[in-house]
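Let us work through a complete example step by step.
Step 1: write down the sequence.
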Amino acid sequence: MKTSLDLVESKRRIRECKLVWYSPDNGPRGFILGRFICLWNSLFQSNGPMLIGWMRQDHAGCSISGRAGSDLNGILYLTLCGLMMPILAFLAFQDGIRDMSFFVVIILTVLAFGLLLLLASNDRREAVPLVDFLELATGGGARHEYS
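Step 2: predict the structure and record it as tokens.
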């Protein structure tokens, strides 16, 4: 997403428009830590739509790039588990485990994690309200692009 506002003004407007964390109403809430932005919709639903992004100043204003999706917490945990599997396979090989069925299970598990990541990242529609919130908070001239 790109806006004609500078970085400081964009951050100020987003902070001003979002809900506080403990608000019982549904709506954008979250934090901005330096240039990192994290937003979610609900106080009670921790695995709901989220937006994670990086804000940067560019020649025409400010741009925010990142991911918006249905369950970014789950995707993060799934990625960490998927990265642990090859490490476990390497450690098992180092300890002398040469059972081929163990390594086949590890390979199939890594492939399943990859497939789940691919399927999970395709469902971005649930986070559209968060992207629209950023567009409204940073001004009507903002535009977002999906890749």
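Step 3: interpret the result. The mean pLDDT is 79.
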